[in-house]
Every structure is written in C-alpha cells, then in structure tokens.
TrEMBL record:
Keywords: Immunoglobulin domain, Membrane, Transmembrane, Transmembrane helix. It comes from the Eukaryota. PROSITE patterns: FN3 (PS50853), IG_LIKE (PS50835). PANTHER family: CONTACTIN 5, NEURAL CELL ADHESION MOLECULE 1-LIKE. Residues 96-197 form the Fibronectin type-III domain. This is Uncharacterized protein. InterPro entries: Cell_Adh-Cytoskel_Orgn (IPR050958), FN3_dom (IPR003961), FN3_sf (IPR036116), Ig-like_dom (IPR007110), Ig-like_dom_sf (IPR036179), Ig-like_fold (IPR013783), Ig_I-set (IPR013098). The gene is AVEN_134092_1. Gene3D superfamilies: Immunoglobulins (2.60.40.10).
Length: 224
C-alpha cells in the first residue's frame, strides 16, 4: 500500500496573479500513479492553468492563480494495485509580505554582514508571518539577470561569504511567507574593502635589526 511522506493534510497560501506549486510525496512498491483533483474534478496536465510534474515518489502541481476559483481543496491521489492514499492540500488566499528593509552593517575577511528587517502588521495571521528572506546580489556592472542568491531563515545571521575584495556590489532582499516571496527591497550598493595584508619584513631589515641589538648589548657590557 502506498505510504505518505509528511502530513496527510496541508494548508498553504497564494495570491491572485501568482504561480503556486503544490507538492505531495508518496512511496510505494509498485511505484504509485499520481492524480490531482479539485472540486471533485480530475485536473489534466498541460492545460491553460495547470502543469503536472511527477517522478517515482513525488508529484508537483504547478498552477497559475488567475482568479479566486483556484482557491480551495486539492487532492493528490497516489495509487497502485495494492491500494491508494490521498494527500489533501487546502489552498487559501493570502498575500506575500511587503519588501523588507536592507542595509550592509560591515565586512570581515571576505564576509559581508547584512541587516534585514521585515515589515508586517501586528495583526497578520500567524501562518502568514515572515519566515525568511532571499538576498540577491550582483556586481555593479551586471544586470539582475546575472544575480546570485542566498536564502536565510528568520533571525539570521545574514552573512554572504567568499565575497571578492575591493569590488562594487549591489544587493536586494525579499521576504518569504507561506504565500511565497514578496517584492524586493530597494537596491543597496556597497564596495568591499581591500584585502589587508601583514607587513613583510625583508631579510636585510632582519639582519640590520639583529646587528643593532648586538651593538647595544656590547655597549651595555662595556659600560658595566
């Protein structure tokens, strides 16, 4: 009989105009066949608003939320000759968070340290509270199409490691909740510091210093 990996009933959020992925994972031998339903109707693959991606144990329903009719209960049914299991996913309407506040607070040995502050109302539903951030960054000479990104859990620390020295970067951040990522913050420009190296003492300087010490020692010996 197929076995569900994870919760059998799930709630998640999306907003009209966005895209949303619903995922269920079910194992079984023989490998189960997946089927998605909404309002007791079978969802067919590669239609205007739905695309289904399935592997041996996982099925993903990707949908375009073009109107409020897309909200409601979705069923992921996995079956094989030994039986079937269903995962119920309730898709609720909810907005992603607003853009956070981003600033660079310092640099240490190739690590850029950031401060990210979420903006959310005190009365926001617990299920829609910000749970993390995504930071994108580029060289000042690049476009955002070339951006690298890193995700962070709420609370930090928010640090980007292995950054180049003496380089102009541009950063931006977006907050994440159960409805997805919101808009990005304004771009923040920052130039990393030059690599600081320890002064090198030449061999001639070392010889000079040693000779000076010997001379002072001999002079003190004579005076005594």
């Amino acid at each position: 009989v197929p076995e569900i990996i994870g919760e059998q009933k799930i709630s998640t959020y999306a907003s009209v105009g966005s895209k949303k992925n619903l995922t269920c994972t079910v194992t079984g031998d023989p490998i189960p066949i997946f089927q998605w339903l909404h309002d007791e109707m079978i969802i067919h693959n590669n239609t205007k608003n739905f695309v289904i991606y399935s592997t041996e144990n996982t099925s993903v329903l990707q949908m375009r939320i073009d109107n409020e009719d897309r909200f409601g209960e979705y069923i992921c049914r996995a079956s094989n000759p030994l039986g079937e299991k269903e995962v119920v996913i309730e898709l609720k309407e909810g907005d992603p968070p607003s853009a956070p506040e981003l600033s660079v607070i310092g640099q240490d040995q190739g690590t850029v340290k950031l401060n990210i502050k979420a903006h959310e109302d005190d009365d926001v539903e617990d299920e829609l509270r910000v749970v993390g951030f995504k930071v994108e960054y580029i060289l000042a000479s690049e476009s955002w199409n070339s951006a690298l990104s890193q995700e962070f859990k709420m609370g930090g620390p928010y640090e980007l490691k292995n950054m180049s020295y003496n380089t102009d970067y541009i950063f931006r951040a977006a907050a994440h909740n159960a409805a997805g990522y919101g808009n990005y913050s304004g771009a923040v420009e920052y130039k990393t510091q030059t690599l600081q190296t320890a002064p090198v003492i030449s061999s001639s300087s070392s010889v000079f210093t040693l000779s000076s010490l010997l001379f002072v020692s001999m002079l003190l010996f004579v005076l005594l």
